[in-house]
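Researcher: We plan to redesign the surface later, but first we want a full-length starting point. Tokens attached.
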């Protein structure tokens, strides 16, 4: 009886779905886990395009990839060995959760968002350490992504707790045209630069009014120097801007604040009553209604679907090596997503989670799509596998920060780095008076600040060689001669490889079994167990040079560090 009633209910519901043009119960049911949703869309596209998918990644491949993506470095050899040898069927899921809850995750995300939002611009008003500390703290407490972006877009630098967030505006010198382009690119996924003087000549979706509507939000903001010498933002009252196309300069148009086609309503105040603080040379201008705060309130919300879509696409690209819309800041009808339904689902999932970034990244990591191998299933069709199919894990070059940290972990050279920093501080201290040197030694905070400064200087060497041009987004991986020469000649790196201070080379030299040396070498540098022929090669090299073993071992370490396998996240 119950079964028959259930069948009749099912038939009735099915007829309702047909009438509503809905093809499955899923539209009315709870969404499946994000990982399953991803795989459903990707796998369906692979079948439709007749593209073979790679096998599931090995444990070693997955461990290295997810650790790099979520914490910005490779795992150490002990972690690699333990994970590879574990028979726990839940070990991948447990690893993901462990990484997402780590301090290193917050640090890595701070670097990623710094590079994404500031594009390695030089510090002017807010230092990078202050800014990254603010970002890291936000990710450590799992601050919702839309709240973080709202803080950044609404910050004026007055509140000390949120002053670092004002770096986005201040270190762009609050230049209207720079801000309009970057707010469009980074938060909406649209590059309106060529719509500044007229409708975009090549992209029908980008209109002249879109550019100027977005400019209204920031055109009234300027810098103001406080009595304490710090620069903050002030704002004059604006309601609209006038604009005219260069092709029709006689026809003037007006627009109020708008996010693409969505025109915002703003309150009107009687003349003379628009300000909390009226503008003057000595008083910071504070209007009763802030357009910049309106931008912060409206842009990172569900009412602006382009925001969730763009952020989902950027987070996907961070993990998968390529956006579903690519380039990331070119969302428009002539550049459609590779998987439109998936991108829509990702944006909806991010919004439905209240912009919980950890939940989103966890779902991506748990998908079979993310966990595919980078090994092409059939070499004969290698050139027929488009990168936007996600049939094979896309290989990504290590960022400068990832390369620095991974070199440090693989060579086990933290003690050597500390010595390099100590030597640099001592050299600086020698140039000061003895009294000043003693004062610095007794000030723990200042000592910590000095150490961080010198460590940052070491990382900056890598950024100069491997990073993007300041003010430009990070490009795709492209090895170059200057990079190879840097790795070969950098004093920072060359000091880490020869045996010393308990580093990898010294530990390997002290081991007796050549096969064990090969295993520890590969686990330390490449996070995997060597193949039989690789072990044999290491044994042959060690056997032919007993008289100069430290140099041979150092050469073996260096050969793996210089390999493409180490330089790439695969």
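Model: Full-length starting sequence:
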């Amino acid at each position: 009886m119950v079964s028959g009633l259930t069948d009749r209910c099912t038939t009735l519901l099915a007829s309702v779905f047909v009438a509503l043009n809905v093809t499955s119960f899923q539209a009315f049911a709870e969404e499946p886990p994000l990982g399953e949703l991803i795989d459903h869309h990707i796998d369906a596209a692979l079948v439709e395009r007749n593209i073979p998918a790679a096998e599931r990644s090995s444990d070693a491949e997955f461990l290295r990839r997810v650790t790099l993506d979520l914490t910005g470095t490779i795992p150490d050899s002990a972690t690699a060995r333990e994970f590879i040898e574990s028979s726990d069927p839940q070990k991948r899921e447990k690893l993901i959760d462990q990484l997402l809850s780590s301090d290193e995750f917050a640090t890595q995300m701070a670097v990623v968002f710094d590079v994404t939002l500031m594009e390695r611009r030089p510090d002017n008003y807010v230092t990078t350490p202050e800014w990254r500390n603010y970002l890291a703290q936000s990710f450590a407490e799992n601050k919702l992504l839309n709240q973080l972006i709202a803080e950044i877009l609404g910050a004026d630098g007055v509140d000390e707790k949120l002053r670092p967030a004002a770096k986005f505006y201040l270190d762009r010198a609050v230049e209207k045209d720079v801000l309009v382009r970057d707010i469009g690119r980074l938060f909406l996924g649209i590059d309106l630069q060529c719509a500044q003087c007229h409708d975009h000549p090549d992209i029908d979706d980008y209109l002249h009014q879109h550019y100027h509507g977005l400019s209204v939000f920031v055109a009234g903001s300027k810098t103001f120097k406080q009595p304490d010498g710090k620069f903050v933002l002030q704002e004059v009252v604006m309601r609209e801007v006038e604009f005219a196309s260069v092709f029709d300069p006689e026809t003037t148009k007006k627009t109020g604040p708008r996010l693409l086609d969505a025109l915002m309503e703003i309150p009107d105040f009687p003349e003379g009553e628009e300000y909390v603080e009226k503008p003057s040379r000595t008083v910071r201008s504070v209007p009763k209604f802030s357009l910049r705060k309106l931008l912060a309130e409206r842009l990172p919300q569900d009412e602006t679907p382009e925001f969730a879509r763009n952020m989902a696409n950027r987070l996907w690209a961070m993990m998968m090596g390529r956006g579903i819309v690519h380039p990331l800041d070119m969302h428009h009808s002539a550049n459609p997503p590779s998987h439109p339904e998936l991108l829509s689902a990702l944006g909806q999932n991010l919004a439905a989670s209240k912009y919980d970034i950890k939940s989103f990244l966890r779902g991506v990591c748990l998908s079979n799509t993310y966990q595919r191998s980078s090994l092409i299933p059939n070499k004969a069709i290698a050139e027929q596998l488009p990168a936007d199919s996600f049939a094979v894990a896309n290989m990504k070059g290590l960022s400068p920060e990832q390369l620095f940290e991974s070199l440090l972990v693989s060579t086990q050279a933290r003690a050597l780095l500390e010595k390099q920093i100590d030597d640099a501080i001592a050299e600086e201290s020698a140039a000061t008076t003895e009294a000043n040197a003693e004062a610095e030694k007794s000030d723990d905070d200042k000592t910590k600040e000095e150490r961080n400064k010198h460590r940052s200087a070491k990382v900056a060497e890598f950024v100069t060689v491997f990073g993007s041009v300041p003010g430009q987004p990070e490009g795709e991986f492209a090895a170059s001669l200057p990079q190879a020469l840097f790795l070969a000649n950098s004093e920072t790196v060359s000091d880490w490889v020869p045996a010393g201070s308990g580093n990898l080379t010294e530990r390997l030299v002290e081991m007796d079994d050549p096969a064990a040396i090969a295993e520890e070498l590969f686990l330390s540098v490449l996070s995997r167990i060597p193949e039989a022929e690789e072990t044999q090669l290491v044994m042959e090299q060690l056997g032919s040079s007993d008289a100069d073993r430290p140099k041979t071992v150092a050469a073996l370490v260096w050969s793996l560090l210089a390999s493409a396998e180490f330089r790439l996240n695969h």
